[in-house]
């Protein structure tokens, strides 16, 4: 069983996991809230190190990342467990259980798969990758040495010290900002808002960063909350791509799906502060990236089919303005 980092010993054979802000105190034989970090006779162990539940070559737009290597496919890997308890989790079979089928894949094997598939990068996604930080770091190091990028898709729930190591290993991330209401984090998903904001602040300007908020009717869909989220993100970078995603009923939530008109209204609120606001899970809504200077389409999207016809090199083909998109040179 692999040995964890990011913990300390307490009296009574208790281990304090210091990886995420849950800061679990774990007694011998028990596991933390995420279910994947275990006190094994006084050593914090990783019984699910390298146990992968899904490995697939996805369009990077599916992460979603819209301004990072658009149109490219990315080898994506998922694990088991999560530090949150979201009752609306779309991947609850792997995030809230450790009994779902998983197969062992070493860091070297995963990198070899990415190279074989001619992926430009590896995405750590589907479930919560941060609770497997040791595996992510081991893999990312090998991947970078082979010229691959590393992409994190995460709830952003991590303590500052491991966050430093994580950000050093990553090139891009999409972080969920599930609400701007501390009570929502506390009562609905058993977490805290402040550490997620802190991680977003740490990541902004350091790696390529996009943020996603799943809009749930009656839970986080007020205009005031959207104003607060958009102002916060704009204070870091008004050109940060922001994705508003429509919720649909799943797992423990049976609230009706988010009406598209409601998300469109919130997107207009966000656009008062942010340049690039996208609506996801909404069927026919445009997700094109427009030139900030002349308004022509830089990156056209129809589902996961991407057109780069509006870009020449790193510039708008029509007016020559620099395109706000990484990975095109
Ligand atoms: S990573 Fe897991 S065990 Fe560690 S503090 Fe977070 S939830 Fe608890």
Give, in spatial order, the strands making up the sheet with the most strands.
8-9-11-12-13-14-15-16
CATH classification, class level of the largest domain = Alpha Beta
CATH architectural designation of the largest domain: Alpha-Beta Barrel
Distance between the termini: 43 Å
DSSP summary, beta strand count: 21
In CATH, what is the homologous superfamily of the largest domain? Aldolase class I
| Number of contiguous helices | 8
Beta-strand percent range: 15-25%
**SS content category:** alpha/beta
Query: Could you please say which CATH topology of the largest domain applies here?
Result: TIM Barrel
The low-confidence parts are none
Mean pLDDT: 96
* Shape summary: globular
Q: How many distinct folded domains?
A: 3
Q: What is the helix/strand order? A: EEEEEEEEEHEHEHEHEHHEHEHEEEEEE
Radius of gyration from CA coordinates: 20 Å
Roughly what percent helix?
A: 10-25%
* Ligand inventory: iron/sulfur cluster
Overview of this structure, please?
- By secondary structure, the chain is an alpha/beta fold.
- The protein folds into 3 domains: 2-46, no CATH class; 51-286, TIM Barrel, CATH 3.20.20; 288-329, no CATH class.
- It is built from 8 helices and 21 strands.
- The chain has helices spanning 92-95, 107-116, 133-145, 160-169, 182-188, 193-203, 223-236, 260-270; strands at 2-3, 7-10, 14-17, 25-26, 38-40, 43-46, 51-52, 54-59, 73-78, 103-104, 121-124, 149-154, 172-176, 208-215, 242-246, 277-280, 289-290, 297-302, 305-307, 311-312, 315-316.
- The strands form 6 sheets. The chain has an 8-stranded mixed sheet with strand order 8-9-11-12-13-14-15-16. It has a 3-stranded antiparallel sheet with strand order 1-6-5, with no helix packed on it. Strands 2-3-4 form a 3-stranded antiparallel sheet, with no helix packed on it.
- A hairpin with a 2-residue loop joins strand 18 (297-302) and strand 19 (305-307).
- Helix 2 crosses helix 3 and helix 3 packs parallel to helix 4 (160-169).
- It is globular and about 65 Å long.
- The termini are far apart.
- The model has no long low-confidence stretch (mean pLDDT 96).
